[in-house]
Amino acid sequence: MSAPGIKRQLYAQFAKVAKTLASAPRLEILELLAQRERSVEDLVAAIGLPVANVSQHLQHLRGSGLTANRREGKYIRYRLADPAVVTLIGSLQELAERNHVETARTINRYFKKRDSLEPVSRAELLRRKKAGAVFVIDVRPLDEFSEGHIPGAVHLPLAELERHLSELPRDQEIVAYCRGPYCVMAFEAVARLRARGFQARRLQDGFPEWKLARLPVAVPA
Amino acid sequence: MSAPGIKRQLYAQFAKVAKTLASAPRLEILELLAQRERSVEDLVAAIGLPVANVSQHLQHLRGSGLTANRREGKYIRYRLADPAVVTLIGSLQELAERNHVETARTINRYFKKRDSLEPVSRAELLRRKKAGAVFVIDVRPLDEFSEGHIPGAVHLPLAELERHLSELPRDQEIVAYCRGPYCVMAFEAVARLRARGFQARRLQDGFPEWKLARLPVAVPA
DNA sequence: TTATCATTCAACGCTTTTGTTGAATGTATG
DNA sequence: CATACATTCAACAAAAGCGTTGAATGATAA
What we know:
2 copies of one chain form a homodimer.
Chain A: H1 4-21, H2 24-35, E1 38-39, H3 40-47, H4 51-63, E2 67-72, E3 75-80, H5 84-99, H6 101-114, H7 122-131, E4 134-138, H8 142-146, E5 154-155, H9 158-161, E6 173-177, H10 184-195, E7 200-202, H11 207-212
Parallel strand pairs in A: 4-5, 4-6, 6-7
Antiparallel strand pairs in A: 1-3, 2-3
The first copy, chain A, binds a DNA duplex through α4.
């Protein structure tokens, strides 16, 4: 009375969910949604694809249960349906970096070049924050920072970095973070700061991972 | 000097790795490899697809770095390249069960029906093993059991269950496990045992997850 | 109501993926 | 050296997925 077909069916469904992650634009959308809820418009502005296409991807994501949405006036706001999505994508990226040759090469060529130092782990950052021996900057866009950030972090997006150099400490290490472990902005910020003679390092993960680990989060009123 | 293309490139590569998981046969192959190393022949016998097709899937898996292989005489033996593959697939399945409507329905219809009791967690099984209040059976095929199993577990595959009922305790709970959290065999075993009046439950995960958690493992010489 | 605007739908070519078939490779065995 | 056998390669048709285009929904605001 056992059903061998049930196994196939279940695996086909798992595969369907995996297929949702198998698209670069969808991964980008998920990363953006990990920062905060967004309307279709917002997402279009952020990733620069035609509206219909983004909408189509959002349908796919919703169909797999990775996102949820709610209507708010004219807008429909999308969000991650489950914080575990961040975990899943994290595992995927970690595995890709360690085992997929091309991914490893890309990361070595581009990222490691700009940031040869070991990144700071969450635990280490916590310790050093308590000791007061660190200056944390959040390089994401303002709207994402406003939705929540590491307590004590100063908002300083890439575009404004040069203008505020005088406000940064030269006797303390600066730690930069952004959307996730492979978000380009933090790498770029660290590279520019080092070029200017600052001591700067990157936080290993981004804000979503920090939040997921249930570490303290500051949300401005 | 920042490269916006690098982000796209990296995400495309992550997507490529995800695409590897986006196929039912490949997920099956990975589950089989999580139990032990296998030749192409072995895999063909286990999943019942044409040789060339299985080989093709294996090329794909290898290309993404999820598997590795070595030649041994006429055979080429494949294995998981990284234990983290088990973690990744686990996250995927968990997310699918919680959020993907069809997956949840399948699981409720088929699996929950056969096993309405809460499964036993790894931690709970460990505690109860120490207290001696549990009888553990491994319902996987012999070759997988031989490659490693939970210490003290008795090998009792589905096909031989009925023949050995007299050797099972009626005053102790029986815990069955197999390849993973959604492996059909453990569900089936528990259902049959309950029908016969035994107290039986399922271990929440399978052997690969047990091993990954660095819990004690028995490997016969 | 009508106009406006965010979002979705439907249909179309285009590319990629999938499984199949039959031949090729490469290693062991007689 | 020839045969047997495990595995891979190459080529093909069928199916699925992707991005584009233009029209349709559905809610707000005048």
